[in-house]
Structures are given as structure tokens and as C-alpha cells.
Design brief:
disordered C terminus; mainly alpha; single chain; 4% strand; two-stranded antiparallel ribbon; Serine Threonine Protein Phosphatase 5, Tetratricopeptide repeat; 3-stranded antiparallel β-sheet; Zinc finger MYND domain-containing protein 12 isoform X2
Length: 274
């Protein structure tokens, strides 16, 4: 049902909370029966962001455990876990998509669903939660809710601090988001410190010439411009341009090579494909 939103019903039984704002919910999705809203606007926001894609999977996840053998029940639990992980990945990808499009209001429902199911599957203190908190922080920075962004980043920092073997990828993403927050708050010096850490961890993980690393340089250049240091900013922008030029040249070389290679082998002596 892609053209219209699933209808709503009044939830019965125990108190339910809105998927978007966590206030008492008055409405329930009649398809999945596990998603609730306080009003129609929040249903529309959730539908646009993630629920249209997630609803069928939620229906499948919440099918009753079969009353058959123990083997049947174990199989059901394993399949449900696979679906839950699929839902987590779907919500993660959708939230990242909305961030890349700078549609920050649309990021929130997908990132909240991502956070909810990470907690359900992995627990409430796991490092897997950090990407969800970072997406929620980016969305709130984008819409100007800096105090809410700071709260999510505090949660992410706490998890990272107690995770001894936290990956460089997570650390670079954390410092990049912290840098964005401090820049939005006008704290340019601390923003530069976080962006420098971002670049350090990105280099460790992806290399000096990576376009991932160049993103940190670009953000640093923006801060230097605000500090009225155009020479430093220009040198960083030049670094970014060089990284992207190298990256795009490699992509074009790959496209050219694939275009010159035949899709199928042809036997010219016999006149048929082998």
C-alpha cells in the first residue's frame, strides 16, 4: 500500500506512547498493530520517513510463536532475529539517506526506529547505539535543537568512553558530529579540536587521501573562514578538491574498463556464446 497511509484505530488496553514524541498515543496503525501516534501529523511524518517501508516487516516480526515442536520455535526465533536485524539496517540506511538530503525532520523517525530496535536486539548500553545517537544529533543540529543534540551526543560519548576497543570509524564519526555541534554553537576553537580528531581517526581507518577524510578537512576549512583565516581555509579546500579529483578519476577509469570488457565470451570459430 504505497499510495496511501494505513488507517488508524484507537489503541486499547495498556497505555501506548507516540512513535515520534513519546507522549500518550491516541491512534494505532491497523496494519502492524505495534506503532502508535498522538496525532495524524506524527503519523504522516513517520510514514514519509520510514513506516511505509517498515510496516510490512513489523507485521512479519510480530507473528505469534508457533505452538509446534521446540525445533519449530527455535527456527521461528532465529528468523525473527534476522528480520529484526534487517529492520535495523533499513532504518539506518533511510536515516542516512535523509541526512544526505538535508531533510532533517525526516531523519528523526527513521533514526528513532533505528535506536529502538538496536536497544531491543543488542541492549541499552551497546556501542551499536552510537550511530543512532549520532544520526539523532545530526538531525537536531539541522533543525536547530542544539540542546537535544547535545543530549544525544553525551549518550554517545558515554558509551564510547566505556568501550575499550571502540573502532576508529565510530570515533571519527563521533568527533565529526561533536565538531558540527560546537560550530553551530559558535564554539569555533573546540569545533576545530573535534574536527582535527575526526581527521586523525579517519586517516587511521580510511587513509590520508580518502574522501571520508576530506570531509573533515572541509569542515575545518569552514571554521577557519569564520575565524577570518582564508589562507588556511583555501589550503584545506585545495586538499579536499585533490582528494575528490583522485576519487572521481578512479571511478571513471573503472567505468571505462568495464565498458571495454565484453559481458559474455564469444567463440568466433564456432559462432556461439560459451
Amino acid at each position: 500500500m504505497s499510495a496511501s497511509i494505513y488507517p488508524l484505530a484507537n489503541p486499547k488496553g495498556e497505555k501506548k506512547l507516540c512513535e515520534i514524541c513519546q507522549k500518550p498515543a491516541k491512534l494505532q496503525c491497523t496494519k502492524c498493530l505495534v506503532t502508535f501516534y498522538c496525532n495524524l501529523d506524527h503519523q504522516q511524518a513517520d510514514w514519509t520517513s520510514i513506516h511505509e517501508k517498515a510496516c510490512p516487516l513489523l507485521v512479519s516480526i510480530n507473528t505469534p510463536v508457533p505452538s509446534g515442536t521446540l525445533s519449530d520455535q527455535n527456527h521461528h526465533h532465529k528468523e525473527t532475529l534476522k528480520k529484526q536485524k534487517c529492520l535495523i539496517e533499513m532504518a539506518h540506511l533511510e536515516a542516512r539517506k535523509w541526512v544526505s538530503m538535508k531533510r532533517f525532520q525526516d531523519v528523526l523517525p527513521a533514526a528513532l526506529l533505528f535506536q529502538h530496535w538496536i536497544m531491543r536486539v543488542y541492549g541499552s548500553c551497546t556501542v551499536e547505539l552510537v550511530p543512532a545517537y549520532l544520526l539523532l544529533a545530526q538531525a537536531n543540529i539541522g533543525i536547530g535543537s542544539l540542546s537535544q543534540a547535545q543530549e544525544y551526543l553525551s549518550k554517545a560519548e558515554w558509551i564510547v568512553m566505556k568501550t575499550a576497543d571502540c573502532s576508529h570509524t565510530v570515533l571519527h564519526q563521533l568527533h565529526r558530529t561533536l565538531g558540527r555541534l560546537h560550530a553551530a554553537m559558535g564554539k569555533q576553537a573546540s569545533a576545530l579540536t573535534h574536527f582535527a580528531n575526526d581527521v586523525y581517526y579517519a586517516i587511521e581507518m580510511f587513509g590520508l587521501d580518502s574522501i571520508v577524510t576530506s570531509g573533515g578537512y572541509f569542515l575545518m576549512a569552514d571554521v577557519f573562514l569564520k575565524q577570518n583565516k582564508p589562507d588556511i581555509a583555501h589550503s584545506l579546500y585545495t586538499e579536499v578538491a585533490g582528494s575528490w579529483h583522485t576519487h572521481l578519476c578512479k571511478l571513471m577509469d573503472g567505468i571505462s574498463q568495464s565498458a571495454t570488457q565484453p559481458d559474455e565470451c564469444f567463440n568466433f570459430n564456432r559462432g556461439f556464446k560459451c
